[in-house]
Amino acid sequence: MPSDYSRQILLREVGAEGQAKLKDSRVLVVGAGGLGSPVLQYLAGAGVGTLGIVDADLLDPSNLHRQPLYSLEDVGRRKTDLAAAALRRLNPSVLIETHPLRFDADNALDLVRRYDVVIDCSDNFRAKFLINDAAVLAQKPAVFASVYQYEGQLQVYKPDTSHACLRCLWPQATADGIVGNCAEAGVLGPVPGAFGTLQALLALKILLNIDGQLEGELLLMDFMNFSAIKLKAPRRAQCRAPDCDLVRPPAREEAGVELRFGSLADARARGMEIIDIRSDEEVAVAIAAGRHIPMPALLANPGLLSPAALYLLVCTSGQRSLAAARDLRAAGIRAHSLARGLRGLDGID
Ligand SMILES: [Zn+2]
Predict the structure, then answer these.
(1) Distance 235 CA to ligand 1 centre (A)
(2) Interval between CA 15 and ligand 1 midpoint (Å)
(3) Beta strand pairing status for 26-30 and 50-54?
(4) Which residue among 21, 94, 127, 165 is buried most deeply as judged by most CB within 10 Å?
(5) Would you say residue 94 lies in a domain?
(6) Is the same domain home to 207 and 273?
(7) pTM for the full model?
(8) Does residue 277 sit in the same domain as residue 196?
């Protein structure tokens, strides 16, 4: 049975011409999680011709409450593969390109250049600013969302001057670990679901050139009291894409910050001290995997660690520990990050 887009083609703003435009479009989705699930499902359903999915993670059972694209039986499998299979069932005429890797400075620009629009469905600031810089340099539209517990915000970057980029609003990139992500702060599934749904809507509006794309505006929504406000978010004078004073080409990734171990005993055998940087709340329901210093406390006081020692920072997924290790290295501490986090170990010992 061929895909049937009749209910959206009925819209004056879409029509057969718009549908053909969608079929010829390529959208890159960075992160196949709580935001990425609805984005991918709605864009595949709408008949966007090619969807690129970037995600390095394996499905974890704790993902399922906010990522209805997946099933419990798929835990432990690669999310890009699972998402691609689910989307092909939803709409076999959509071409899915999987990129099972971490979106980083070495691949950001190359990936973004290959698509018409990039959608930020990441859960960390490092990725968001990388997406921003790549979008500005490549002159591609980007749709950003950030979620914190019951609230979040949406922003659209486009090369035309009515849109600010992320660095126009936050010239100093916000460091990970200062504001909690879902693993740290907790979230109810429908909250990222709602923001992801709005990102899908914005992506379709951009592709179809429909009005109302948050030009020069930041949309803040709070689902605790159901309030929404739009703030003016003008572009800075120094931001004249692609020659923006605030955007630099991504620097190459420093090799060797992340290390892989089957067990923490292997790391200790190599003379490393384990520092568990998870929050008090996370450690309360688990067991600290080593000396426990929550990430915000550690970054505020790098002097808690000795420049003479060798450290392995650990968290749940390896994302916060990587951000923290990079920060500590800048402060002269020999810190590494456990790749894939505690969840990637064969067992905690
Ligand atoms: Zn800017």
Answers:
(1) 6
(2) 34
(3) parallel
(4) 165
(5) yes
(6) no
(7) 0.82
(8) no
